[in-house]
């Protein structure tokens, strides 16, 4: 067989159509953009030897740290290791977190080789503390390697990637945990129906999302996984997020068809995880590899820069909570304890539903009541006094008509002072508004739902000052303060986007006589200085319908902060 050189570890009887090589026999291309197009189209998908050669070529172009172990290092080490031990005597390192090697289409005896490669990697990369995806990547690359030494070199180069802002595999618990939080954030934004299903059926959505990498790298059948690997080696880590979001979309569709519109009952998160795993393992019966890729790349996600920034923000949040090594994260429901939570506006269940919309890095926090008109009176000045210094905050309003609405506000109210006496908008695209009736619904930044309204800015472009259009015709917006060295730029800051209109970035504003949420052709919420009268309407920033009656009287107003639930 022509593929024997690159398939000595493969059980060809399991390869199906992939065992019959056809199509092109070489790739005459060195342009990365062209490679990207070819990978997505499956240019080398029907030729095992060509795919192996392309993988080798792509991985050898990865920028790596100066000293990166290669095939010769492996041969030197294993040459002194003596006779190979049976695989049962070669346990995988602890940092794979108990994940077994997925066999895919490997021969049974290839497990020994894979275990030896991974253990050799562990010896050469002592800084790896948590890398649960390594068995899957090693297994996949072994299908396309001439020998163990070459597979070791390919894996080592992936791990040693040192390109700024780029990662290929999580290698610490902190990185892995933040990636799970990041996936949760992306699920909320790009698969709201799927996220709603998970929140409704699982006791802990965060626990379900810890499997997101497993869905792609362990649970997909080989025919699908190898097509994912094609594009992953060209485009990097972001591809894994795309594929996992696509799988969540297909799972939601599957459940909707199976239930026939009937509601789902909450159940143990472990059962939901097992159900998703079973669906993905059998996905070949309903979804082709091409259909999976088409769905994944039809999602108009943020740039790699924005996703990297979100992951760094989540990492920073975890570091501030003391999470740097492997440790169990508290269940999200513990952060919102129904036995101790008390609000005069929403129930514990309603607050938990609101909690499911907020960025994942705050899911470890518990709600902390900062201000309520029932205790602190109807004074905007006292509102500012109690809310300043807290970021983010959650605003809840109950009207005299019984309507309940509110907003998640990403930025400290102190920022309003930077505009002087002029009403200036500030905040980031993580702000959103919501209403509880006629059904619970939240409205995010319009750019999330309509990316065509903006494109990623060049890194050196300057941020436009926020505008107060609709209140003053002058450009009297808030200038972004300079960030201290090492400080993170906020995720979804308007500085990262070329916005077609300032009306789409008017998140929150306040001065001595009012607070406003949402702007551009109206305001989502306007509250007067006595916290007594308000107006609700459509606005361009959130593209929302009126959250309640267009003119209303406030019966009760509460503001909640986010208190670290992991603090001792």
TrEMBL record:
<feature type="region of interest" description="Disordered">
    <location>
        <begin position="458"/>
        <end position="485"/>
    </location>
</feature>
<dbReference type="GO" id="GO:0012505">
    <property type="term" value="C:endomembrane system"/>
</dbReference>
<dbReference type="InterPro" id="IPR000195">
    <property type="entry name" value="Rab-GAP-TBC_dom"/>
</dbReference>
<dbReference type="InterPro" id="IPR006571">
    <property type="entry name" value="TLDc_dom"/>
</dbReference>
<dbReference type="InterPro" id="IPR035969">
    <property type="entry name" value="Rab-GAP_TBC_sf"/>
</dbReference>
<dbReference type="GO" id="GO:0030659">
    <property type="term" value="C:cytoplasmic vesicle membrane"/>
</dbReference>
<dbReference type="Pfam" id="PF07534">
    <property type="entry name" value="TLD"/>
</dbReference>
<keyword id="KW-0770">Synapse</keyword>
<keyword id="KW-0472">Membrane</keyword>
<feature type="domain" description="TLDc">
    <location>
        <begin position="344"/>
        <end position="563"/>
    </location>
</feature>
<feature type="compositionally biased region" description="Polar residues">
    <location>
        <begin position="458"/>
        <end position="479"/>
    </location>
</feature>
<comment type="function">
    <text>May act as a GTPase-activating protein for Rab family protein(s). Involved in neuronal projections development, probably through a negative modulation of ARF6 function. Involved in the regulation of synaptic vesicle trafficking.</text>
</comment>
<keyword id="KW-0968">Cytoplasmic vesicle</keyword>
<comment type="subunit">
    <text>Interacts with ARF6.</text>
</comment>
<protein>
    <recommendedName>
        <fullName>TBC1 domain family member 24</fullName>
    </recommendedName>
</protein>
<dbReference type="Pfam" id="PF00566">
    <property type="entry name" value="RabGAP-TBC"/>
</dbReference>
<dbReference type="GO" id="GO:0045202">
    <property type="term" value="C:synapse"/>
</dbReference>
